[in-house]
């Protein structure tokens, strides 16, 4: 038995921020952002919306898609938690009316959806759960310095969710083999220095006022990250295709993490996949980290571009550094259009 995708849902906060909006406060322009990232607009939390509330909305839609009112476990992947403690997943489960089911968070930044899929599949494979609601949810713009032209235009907020059930390995929706990897030696290429135990221990007794303001926000080394992302996603995708015994020519859709349009296209080129088979929605939502891939899948499924029986390759890369890939044959499921 294995984990089978049986429902999907997504949610975006209502506040839309265009490149022109950003250019009013940043030394940037719509053309500068579009040519470097492929992004035209993104959604941002406001009015009290946060990671948990986004997760609840996406999770409810995924459960409706799957036709279920209960699950055995809830897993939330996020790098923008509600609080450092406790995890948000138990609260999400409670707000969804799921009772006292197992619920926990995991953190793997932009690779969170792939790591979370593997974790949720493990719960099912081990017999711990028959059904799992897995949600990637991010309010990451709250951790980005909105005065930093290198990072502020890139990120957006949102949540994407899937329901997995126990099923047969040869049925549509069954998750294929996984390829996961990391390189912690390069962790500082994408990091938020302050807020964790390392900074708190070093500054013990000095107070938060001694920490430079910039340390509370994301730092990114763009050029080396680009190289690493293309190399690692390509290698991971090829590895999982080999394990699944799928020729690249059999892939109908490449659903890569939406970090940067140039990265997605470069990976597709390395894989020798034509542009028509590359799924893209970064132009409208930006980089939503762990929510990126499920939002992309929901988007394409809801408008009929992603159809039952099509072969899908999933791959992501993010902070850690971390990366992962898997494959599946898309099942017959209904997806609600994302707001």
From TrEMBL:
Subunit structure: Homodimer.
Annotated GO biological process: fatty acid biosynthetic process; secondary metabolite biosynthetic process
Protein name: Beta-ketoacyl-[acyl-carrier-protein] synthase III
One Pfam family matching this protein: ACP_syn_III
Pathway(s) annotated for this protein in UniProt: Lipid metabolism; fatty acid biosynthesis
Active site per UniProt: 110, 257, 287
Reactions the enzyme catalyzes: malonyl-[ACP] + acetyl-CoA + H(+) = 3-oxobutanoyl-[ACP] + CO2 + CoA
Keywords: Acyltransferase, Cytoplasm, Fatty acid biosynthesis, Fatty acid metabolism, Lipid biosynthesis, Lipid metabolism, Multifunctional enzyme, Transferase
Residue span(s) of domain Beta-ketoacyl-[acyl-carrier-protein] synthase III N-terminal: 104-184
InterPro entries given in the database record: ACP_syn_III_C, ACP_syn_III_N, FabH, Thiolase-like
Protein source organism: Streptomyces variegatus
Top-level taxon of origin: Bacteria
A GO CC term attached to the entry: cytoplasm
Enzyme Commission code(s) on record: 2.3.1.180
GO molecular function annotations of the record: 3-oxoacyl-[acyl-carrier-protein] synthase activity; beta-ketoacyl-acyl-carrier-protein synthase III activity
Main location class: cytoplasm
Annotated region (ACP-binding), positions in chain: 258-262
């Amino acid at each position: 038995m294995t984990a089978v995708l049986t429902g999907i849902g997504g949610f975006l906060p209502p506040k839309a921020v265009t490149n022109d909006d950003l250019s009013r406060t940043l030394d940037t322009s719509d053309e500068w952002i579009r040519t470097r990232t492929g992004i035209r607009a993104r959604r941002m939390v406001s009015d009290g919306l946060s990671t948990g509330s986004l997760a609840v909305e996406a999770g409810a839609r995924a459960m409706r898609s799957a036709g279920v009112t209960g699950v055995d476990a809830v897993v939330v992947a996020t790098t923008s938690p509600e609080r450092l403690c406790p995890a948000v997943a138990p609260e999400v489960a409670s707000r969804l009316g799921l009772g006292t089911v197992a619920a926990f968070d995991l953190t793997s930044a932009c690779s969170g959806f792939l790591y979370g899929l593997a974790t949720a599949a493990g719960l099912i494979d081990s017999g711990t759960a028959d059904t799992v609601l897995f949600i990637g949810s991010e309010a990451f713009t709250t951790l980005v310095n909105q005065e930093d032209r290198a990072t502020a235009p890139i990120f957006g907020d949102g949540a994407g969710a899937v329901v997995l059930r126990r099923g047969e390995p040869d049925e549509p929706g069954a998750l294929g083999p996984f390829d996961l990897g990391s390189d912690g030696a390069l962790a500082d290429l994408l990091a938020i220095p302050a807020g964790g135990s390392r900074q708190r221990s070093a500054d013990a007794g000095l107070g938060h006022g001694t920490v430079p303001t910039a340390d509370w926000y994301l730092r990114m080394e763009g050029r080396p990250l680009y190289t690493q992302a293309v190399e690692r996603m390509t290698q991971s995708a090829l590895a999982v295709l080999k394990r699944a015994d799928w020729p690249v020519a059999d892939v109908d859709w490449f659903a890569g993490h939406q970090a940067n349009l140039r990265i997605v296209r470069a990976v597709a080129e390395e894989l020798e996949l034509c542009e028509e088979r590359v799924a893209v929605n970064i132009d409208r939502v930006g980089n939503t980290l762990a929510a990126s891939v499920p939002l992309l899948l929901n988007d394409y499924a809801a408008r009929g571009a992603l159809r039952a029986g099509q072969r899908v390759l999933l791959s992501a890369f993010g902070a850690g550094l971390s990366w992962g890939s898997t494959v599946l044959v898309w099942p017959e499921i209904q997806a609600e259009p994302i707001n």
